[in-house]
Every structure is written in C-alpha cells, then in structure tokens.
Amino acid sequence: MNSHNLISDDVKLGNDVRLSSFINLYGCEIGDQTKIGAFVEIQKNARVGKSCKISSHTFICEGVTIEDNVFIGHGVMFINDTYPRATTTEGKSQTETDWKVEGTVIKKGASIGSGATILSNVTIGENAIVGAGSVVTKDVPADSIVAGNPAKVVRFIHQQADKSGASANIPFLDLVTPHLELEAELTEAFRVALHTAGFVGGPVVDQFEKAFAYFCTVSHAVAVSSGTDALRFAIMACGVQAGEVVLTVPNTFIATTEAISQAGALPEFIEIDEHTYNLSVEMLQMYLEKQCSRDKSGRLISQRSGRPVTAVVPVHLYGQMADMDGVLDLAQQYGLTVIEDACQAHGAEVFSRKHNRWMKAGSMGRAAAFSFYPGKNLGACGEGGAVTTNDAEVAAKIKLLRDHGQVTKYNHEVEGYNGRLDAIQAGLLNAKLPHLPKWNAQRRERAEQYGRFLDKTTAITLPYEPAWSRAVYHLYVIRTCARRGLMNQLQAAGIGTALHYPIPLHLQKAYLSMNYHVGDFPVAERVASEILSLPMFPQLTAQQQFRVAEEILTFTSRSLSQGTQVDLNASLPSKITA
Ligand SMILES: Cc1ncc(COP(=O)(O)O)c(C=O)c1O
To answer: In whole angstroms, what is the distance from residue 89 CA to residue 388 CA?
Structure first.
C-alpha cells in the first residue's frame, strides 16, 4: 500500500484489493480483487463489489452501491441528494441529520464512462454502458447504451441481446410468463378447490370480493361470471328500465352495448375526445342540451329515439380514465345514473376536483363493471367479472341477479341469471390481486419508456394522459395515418400488434337498425382508422420495447422521406349494409 493513502480503520477491504496512491476511503466496503486508481474518494456506507475497476479521480459518495465486475471511468461523480442545500431553512449550516441519503445502484457488469455524472435515486441496469460525459437522471435499462444530458438509450448491446432472445418475436401479449412466475400460488388455488370441492361461491369467492372491494376503495364488490354480466347486472340493479336510453361511446368493445341492450335498454352514442379517446364531456353536454327535450312529466327524452334518457356508461378505455368530474356533474344536472365500464381499468385513478383526491376506477359511479378476462390487467384463467358499488341495495340486487334470483335455496324473489364467479377463478384472482399494483406500475413504466423511445418522431401520436388521470395502460395505443404499412413492417419483424377497435360500434352490422351513418362520429371514426395497439404487458423488457421503437422509427423516417403519410389501405367502412 502507498503511504499517501488515507484508509480509515472502519473500511472493509476484501482480499487482493489493489490501491493506487492519494486515495481517501472511510466507512466503506470494497470487494475482493477490485482496483482503485489515484485520487479516488469513497465515502461511508458506499459498497463496491468484487473485481471492479474504479479509475482515477472518481468520487463515490455515501449511499452508492456498486455490484461486482463494474467498470467506472475517470472522474465519475455520484450524487446522493436531489435538492442539496448548504443551510437549513433557519439559516444554520446543515448537519447529517438535516438530509437523507438517496441511494444509487450500479448493477453487475455495468460500465460508466469517464466524466459521467450519476444523479441520486437511479439504478443502472446489468451490463449497461453509460457514455463518457453523460448525465444520468433516470434508471438505465439492462444491456442498454445510454449517452447525453440527460442520458437516453442510444441502442442495446446486441451480442448479449441475441443471447437473451432480443431478435426473437415480440408477442403482443405474454400471458405465459406471469402464470409461470406465480405457478405455485396458482396451483395451490386449484388444490384448495379440489380438496374442498368448493367450486361455485363459498369462502374463496367471499374472500376475493372483500379484497377486490378494498382494492377499489368501495364497500361492495360482487363477483360474477364475466365483465359483460357485470355491466348488464349493474345496469339492471341501478334501476334502468326496459326501453330507456343508456348513453355510451362508439369506440368500445361491443360488450358495453350488448350489456345495455340485454338489460332491455337502448344504447345511444356520444362522440369521444380526440386526445383521450374517452367520452367527450363537451359532446355529452351538447347532446343533453341540443338533442334531448323534456316531456310533460319533465323526463329527459332523446329526440333520436323518443325514449327517456336515464343513464350513462363512461368507458375507461385502454386503462385510461374518462373525465369523471365532467361526467358526474352533467349526470347530476340531468338526473342520469352513472355506471362505469371499468373492464379495462383495474387500479386506474382520476383526480376528483370535488373530493380533492385521487379516486380509483370503479369507485365513482353508482356502480361499475370489471372484467377478469385472461388478458386484462387482473385476469382470471377463464372468464370472470365483478360489480363494485358503494350502494348496499345495488350490491344485494346483483347478488340476486347472478344467482337465479334466489334469496335462499330455491326461494326465487325474481327471475335471475346463472352469472356467478366460480371458486377456482376466485382463488386464482386472490393469488394474483396482491401483484396488481406492481404490474400496473410496470405497465406505467413501459408506457413512459415507449414515450422516451418514440418522442423522436411526430409521425405518430402517443397516448395522452391528462394531469388528472393515472392510467394503467391495459393497452398502449398509438395513432398513425400510415397504419397498414406500419402493421406490416412490425409483423415482418415478428412484432405483434392489434386493433382496439377497427370499426366503431355505430357502423357495425349488428347495429344497422340503429340507423347511424358514416360521419355521425367523425372523431371516433378517424381514431378507429388510425389506432394501433403495441405490445404491452408488465414483463415486456426495455430491450423489446427498443426493438419495437426502432422498427417504428425506421418506418416513419422512410415513409416521411417518401412522402407517404397517407394510409392507402385503411379506408373506413363506407356504409355497411346488410
Ligand atoms: C370495455 C369493455 N367492456 C366490457 C367487456 C366485457 O368483459 P368480458 O369479456 O369479461 O365479458 C370488455 C372485455 O373485453 C371490455 O373491454
């Protein structure tokens, strides 16, 4: 060891650590065979793993963890405080008790180029490379190369990527991995059902209902056999009568309108918002003001159908909340019942101006419907659904409706349905529900990552999340007027995509008798012709997202340079005739 080094007694030095000169180490831990260059300072509670190389003039502060085999170039600066101050608010010099260390983790095998600055609270992924002089402000994905200020992903390390399957196909949705990850817990749910022969209803279903109600911050959740049943039962239980009009959007899955029709009501459509693709509050207001009138008894009557308008079903499409404040205000003003279609929005939140807090999807309407179809954010291994509500009467009615109208065995108060959730699905959902917050957070991270990768082009429109919404990205839907070409390119590259939904409901053959026409909902029609759903699931890797983005950027730059901005193949259905 060199006599110019200052190594305090509390330093834990591993075997065969090689130190150059003018090094200052205190309270830190250095792993075996690590080399440290001249003029390096490593502070207390910093940890450096085995076989690392720390080049000269680097400063490693308290709270930094460097795993094994990491290369740190010359003059790398770590920072452990987002808002450093010299003095307290009272003007006294700060002491250690006045601030909290914000840690940084450099995962094994990563390399940090000379002169890089690494801000606090970031994780640099395994084998990632940070370019010289970069300023790292956010987490760096494993195997990526980042550069610049702020550092952005430039590309991924392909030799290693190929080993991990980076050139393999990227599915639109991976449903296998999450089930394998939870295999033991899921299998246990089957075992419990087999051992107790409790297949329909019973304590496992009760347990799920309680847990899901708690998750949605409501007092009741009633489990049923599908999202469609949930919505149909909710509409019926909320007192919508046969022949009444229920308003909804034209760009949803047909189950929304099936549920309305099958509850005996008549769907009518309201135009959507161009940015959120959800119900437009302005258009709802316009409809209520201009396309309805009052009859002698003061009931709101649709001029289109001559029927009373009594309810509205906002759909939280793609996991993005509808503007509930606006919808609820209008509903109150016009006496409409609000029933949320939250089938794609488990855990999404909206900021309620009225309550001055974030509120969960499914907690704002009189009732709400959820689907547990396997691909949903919370999916069963078969069919399933639930109604959430704070109204005990509505909950009780749904319990009747789902079980042949029985109050007790063979005592039928009304004619009901066979719409129960089976206990195996409830057991599986019980096992999955605790993971939902993490999965939703991962979906949000994936959405942000797509945003970072794709913000280089203006040829596509990315999903828009208003400040009052926290979406859960059931789907990640972009818009492009060159959709067919882009889909083809992604398909040729082995990347799965889908369309949600290519033909708006008012133009579906099934609804010909409603007598809507092309042009009735220009925004919904344009959006339907331009949307494209990209791969989105919690286990999607940054590397896979980078490949998706690379294909999109290649396509958009080529089509821009060729001036082909118009989708030659995506014409709207003109009028659909029987
Ligand atoms: C918006 C919307 N509503 C209703 C449903 C119906 O749910 P389920 O398929 O469970 O019947 C779905 C399911 O895809 C949906 O996406």
So the answer is: 47
Enumerate residues 6+ apart whose C-beta is below 8 A from 291.
Answer: 302, 303, 304
**Interacting residues of 351 by C-beta distance below 8 A, sequence separation 6+:** 357, 358, 359, 467, 468, 469
Percent of the chain with pLDDT over 70: 94
Statement: residue 576 has pLDDT above 60: no
Q: Whole-angstrom Cα distance, residue 436 to residue 360?
A: 14
Q: pLDDT tens digits for 45-61?
A: 999 999 999 999 999 99
Distance CA 391, CA 388 (A): 9
State the closest ligand 1 atom to the C-alpha of 226, by its place in the atom list counted from 1: 10
For residue 156, the model assigns a pLDDT of 83
pLDDT level of residue 571 (50, 70, 90 thresholds): very low
Residue 142 near ligand 1, beta carbon < 6 Å: no
CA distance 262 to 32: 70
* Per-residue pLDDT, 3: 63
The predicted pLDDT at position 557 comes to: 87
Q: Does ligand 1 come within 6 angstroms of the Cβ of 340?
A: no
Q: Which of 272, 371, 377, 474 to mutate to test the pocket of ligand 1 (most atoms within 8 A of CB)?
A: 371
* CB 49, CB 66: distance < 8 Å: yes
228 within ligand 1 shell (Cβ under 6 A): yes
Taking a C-beta distance cutoff of 8 angstroms, is the pair 268, 274 a contact? no
**Alpha carbons within 13 A on the beta-carbon side of 561:** 5
Q: Is 82 exposed, middle or buried (0-12, 13-18, 19+ CB in 10 A)?
A: exposed
Token pair of 550 as six digits: 């690379």
Q: How far apart are CA 289 and CA 292, in angstroms?
A: 6
pLDDT in tens, 278-330: 999 999 999 999 999 999 999 999 999 999 999 999 999 999 999 999 999 99
- Taking only the tens place, the pLDDT of each residue in 327-368 is 999 999 999 999 999 999 999 999 999 999 999 999 999 999
Is residue 235 classed exposed, middle or buried when 0-12, 13-18 and 19+ CB atoms within 10 A define those classes?
buried
Nearest to 553, CA basis, from 470, 473, 484, 458 = 458
Task: Tell me how far apart the alpha carbons of residues 195 and 120 are, in angstroms, rounded to a whole number.
Answer: 51
Report the distance separating Cα 319 and Cα 471, nearest Å: 5
Q: Given this model, what pLDDT does residue 563 score?
A: 56
Q: How far is the CA of 186 from the centre of ligand 1 (A)?
A: 23
Ligand 1 within 6 A of 225 CB? Answer: no
**Residue 570 scores a pLDDT above 90:** no
Could you tell me where the beta strands, DSSP code E, fall in 357-494?
A: 357-360, 367-371, 385-389, 406-408, 411-412, 469-470, 476-479
Average pLDDT, the chain: 93
**Atom number, ligand 1, closest to the C-alpha of residue 259:** 4
Half-sphere exposure of 567 (CA within 13 A, CB side): 23
Give the closest residue (by CA) to ligand 1 atom 10.
227
pLDDT in tens, 415-454: 999 999 999 999 999 999 999 999 999 999 999 999 999 9
